[in-house]
Amino acid sequence: MLEKQLKKIRTKNKLTIEELSKACNLPLAYLKEVEEGKRELTSKALDYLLANLDLDEDIEALHFSTSGMGDKLRAMREEKGLTLEELGRHLDLSVTYLSEIELGERTPSIQTLQKISRYFNVPISLFLHTEGKLIATGKKIRMTRETKGMTQKQLANAAQISPGLVAQLETGKVQPSLKTIERISKALSVSVCYLILEQEDAEGIIAGITPELRELLFDPRVQMLIGHICTLDSEQLRLVLNFIHMLKEPALKEK
């Protein structure tokens, strides 16, 4: 995976880990843990590496999944009112090649992905999914389902999807569409943001806290609680905050 090759890549680009830390605006300690294989790259760091460093590996060799990329590319192209021929001229790519990418029949090279992301002015990570991300989403689905005492078949029936798809999602074998996520979140009575929110978006902040608290924040039970909070209205949230303040008040008075 890219994390395991980070030191080799930055050395090739003549960057010290301190320089990379400054360029990515990420804590030095966090990047050291990434190089040691203890942490995953954040989207911000991933975008910087793929967009600015000299990478000669293929996407598949770096263990990224481009599932759903074709749909995203087609949607962005159509939003701009471009035909495949017009986009091909802008990117200096053949119509056949672009068509195969949109149909999911071909995996683009990193260089092609750089061209596409720069043309549409979007981060490269928009198109990529690591195995870890898919597994994390699957774990959330499975944990929430089991907490509610539902079988995979019951969840499938409630979400109007096949039991086989539920099994594949829970094991991180497929990337769910937004429509599928919406159906599952409704069936499980949790917010969509809980299921799709990537914990790596908060890595830059979490990297600076203690290991004990970091581990607690990544506990599936804590994440499920955060997911439930996402579904609260303003009055319910106010009551929760007041309750937390009431619990903390005795400790604050002792200080």
Gist of the model:
This protein has helices spanning 2-12, 17-24, 28-35, 43-52, 69-79, 84-91, 95-102, 110-120, 131-147, 152-159, 163-170, 178-188, 192-196, 203-206, 211-217, 220-229, 234-254; strands at 64-65, 129-130. By secondary structure, it is an all-alpha fold. A two-stranded antiparallel ribbon has the order 1-2.
3D structure, described in words:
The chain is mainly alpha-helical and 255 residues long. It has three domains: 2-55, lambda repressor-like DNA-binding domains (434 Repressor (Amino-terminal Domain)); 69-126, lambda repressor-like DNA-binding domains (434 Repressor (Amino-terminal Domain)), CATH 1.10.260; 128-255, 434 Repressor (Amino-terminal Domain). 65% of the residues lie in helices and 2% in strands. It contains 17 helices and two strands. The chain has a two-stranded antiparallel sheet. Helix 9 (131-147) crosses helix 16 (220-229) and helix 10 crosses helix 11. It is globular, with a radius of gyration of 21 Å. The termini are far apart. The model is unreliable at 200-205 (pLDDT under 50).
